[in-house]
Amino acid sequence: MMPRSEGAGTAWQAAVDAHKARYRDRIVDAAVELAATEGASRITMARLAQHAGIGRATLYKYFADVEEALLAHVQRELDRCGDVLEAAAAPSGATGLERLRGCVAALAEYFGSGGHQHGWASLDRAELSTAANRVVTERMSRLIEPVVAVFADGVDDGSIRPGLAPQTYGPLVLKLVVSLHEELYRGSMTSEEAVEIVWQLVSTGVAAAAPQGATPDVTSDDAS
User: What is the distance between the alpha carbons of residues 200 and 154, in angstroms, rounded to a whole number?
Assistant: First the structure.
């Protein structure tokens, strides 16, 4: 038998990896669907295998338990959301405040998209173990970092009021959008409406009153 060429071997491995990725996503999707309809704590591996349409032996090749499959879902969604936020936060010549609004809009669009089904924000974390919740919290840091960085840029460039700690206020902006994820997912609120609601609160609270260096109007009464 002739040895397989390096190119053929690479193509074969790529096909195998793609097949495994499809199976993994299929299992993760099934776990999330069951968690949304039946509750995460009620799912058994047998039930998950049945819902995913695979054998239990195959299921165990991918995940040791149901919680591991749900955490894989959290990681997948956080990665997608992180990519969206990092793109919105990337320097573009805009002020920090303008880029902060871009982050709000990008996150609202993410939650309102058809691809976002039962995302990380809608997973009932009360049903996960303490160790699993710790993992979720750690992985959430990727979402917080770009928003905090943009907030800090806004303080530096004067578009956001001085004295506001980015590490405190940045995550609050993120949480405002997350609090609307159910309305966005159900379609009872559009992403544009969510942006306006959040931005009214954010801009009132954090936007600088006037550009740095601006001279306030002085009336004759003030001058006297």
Answer: 17
